Amino acid sequence: MRTASLLSAIAVSACLASPVLASPKCTDQPQSKWLSEEAMKAKIAKMGFKKIRTFQRTMSGCYEIYGFTPDNKKAEVYFNPVTGAVVEKNVDGE
Hints:
By secondary structure, this protein is of the alpha+beta class. The protein has helices spanning 2-17, 37-46, and strands at residues 50-57, 63-68, 74-79, 86-91.
């Protein structure tokens, strides 16, 4: 019984100590209103992002990429999938 309590306490502590990693909320629109992946990828390329390693849909209604900015800095960027606008951008050194 004591071991189970100790393990539960450790698990709770680990959860509280770990950072919350969550993507922003980008849209509530249904996916039928979203730009196609091909159209979004073209829009992203026109913005100058390159060497895209990851392109994915998030559970919070975004398109997300991991790649590089036009000046070659690592970037994680969330886009509104309906408008293609940048919602949040995390760039190394900024």
